[in-house]
Amino acid sequence: MPVNLTPKDVSAELAEFNSVLIASCPVCPPMCVAMQNDAPFIEFFKHGIKTEAFEAHIQSIRDLLTKRGVRTGVFSIHTPTPMMCLWTESQRRRFLKRAKDYDAVLVLACDSGTVSARDALEGTDCSVVQALQMDGVVNATTTIGFPLVVSMKPNMESPGPISGPPPTDHGEHTFTEQAG
Ligand code: SF4
After folding, report:
1. How remote is the CA of residue 113 from the centroid of ligand 1, in Å?
2. Distance of alpha carbon 179 from alpha carbon 50, whole angstroms
3. Between β-strands 127-130 and 71-75, what pairing exists: parallel, antiparallel or unpaired?
4. Per the structure, how many domains does the chain have?
5. Ligand 1 pocket by C-beta < 6 Å: which residues?
6. What CATH number is associated with residue 100?
7. Considering the domain boundaries, does residue 89 fall inside one?
8. Digit-coded pLDDT (tens) for 77-128
């Protein structure tokens, strides 16, 4: 059962960093962002297993950071477990290897995924900032259309309904534009 996640403004928390690695869980976050944007979760023949709305969200974060002169990178792993909350020791080591070149990690995952990131980076100077707000769990109806288009519609009786306003700019809830 996926957790319900909505982007939150972390501009102030990231202001002091010159380099940020965006670490994303490829399970609940893309599902939630797709539902919030009323967009497909998977369009296999266009984007493979990636969710276009979520990729656009990540890119908008990178664009806003780049405008501030921040170096960015992206990290996501699908094997052996795509769920960040269940990362193996080997996945944590791979993450540590990537993250140690950055001042901070921006986590696109729930509280539990963020715990995995903190655990992997324990004892380092790399800061961990969570960019998604966790708000219960979500129940949705999945439809699979032709050709391999997978969409999810949240149900009204969902324990944690998709309640956040759909972002018009995918990055607007993660960053506040700053003058200068
Ligand atoms: S880390 Fe959180 S967001 Fe990712 S699969 Fe686990 S519960 Fe879902």
Report:
1. 6
2. 33
3. unpaired
4. 1
5. 2-3, 25, 27-29, 83-85, 109-110, 112-113
6. 3.40.50
7. yes
8. 999 999 999 999 999 999 999 999 999 999 999 999 999 999 999 999 999 9
